[in-house]
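Example (one chain per record):
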Amino acid sequence: MQDSLQSIELYNGDRMPSVGLGLWKIPNQDAAGIVAEALRMGYRHLDSACDYGNEKEVGQGIAQALQAGVCRREDLWVTSKLWNTYHRAHHVRPALERTLDDLGLDYVDLYLIHFPIALQFVPFETRYPPGWVYDPDAPDPKMQPDAVPIAETWAAMEELQRAGLARHIGISNFGCALIRDLLSYAQVRPSVLQVESHPYLVQPKLLRFCQQEGIAYTAFSPLGAGSYVPLGMAQPSDSVLDEPVVQQIASRHDKSPAQVVLRWGIQRGTAVIPKSVHIDRLRQNIDLFDFSLSDAEMEAISALDRHHRFNDPGVFCEQAFGCFYPIYD
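Predicted structure:
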């Protein structure tokens, strides 16, 4: 067991588990059971968000595990995220308080700004989670952006940490330029950046910059296309798991292609948060510490880079929500 790879050290010395369970798109009816089972298997890192719409059920799964003595609260790393409609300073704390109430927790270990996208506020009693469009019942439902400076949102995030509601604060879907700007005024530095990252989107400059600045890096969608095929945002042929080089390396190590790709992510120094509702895959996704990839194997996987982003607001916001909103070049 390679202890140094099992967690990532944050700038204050705290450690975040390198492998977590991503909770996006886990159906509500399955979420409590999946979370409880994952914690029994040894998962200690859960990646949640208001927008996933299943935090109440996730909280039920956590409660089941805690009550059964599977783990203690202090053994868990629970991440959640501030949704786009809550970027105004006076909405930030109520948003986290709603998340904490749903999760049944007193604090989260990490709270992220989900996107550098601010949308018009939707009251909790009107719709929760609020989603992307302002009024789904409008004749032409669309996103409605709100001109909120990231500095305003970040200052409110800092207050959450000072209040003990979030042990760490961070960002998601930010690039180098936005991070550099944030660092110029932040009184509390972001602990973590979470971004899409897999062998088709290697992002070496972004990872190097984060490592230089002491910002831990979490890869969402670490296996690539799988979660996006049902949404029409990827094709089955886009699967990195079918790449011959990945298949060959998997065969060499007697591991699955998914395990090889996740191991690649960990050896790069990133955390990975794969999602699955299948028990056997849940076990495989955490069984990554009894083998290692050679430098040549790491380089071969990195060479698959297509600079291809499946989760791109500059594409899906216009297609699905009637608003062209690019955040990446």
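Caption: The two ends are 40 Å apart (CA to CA).
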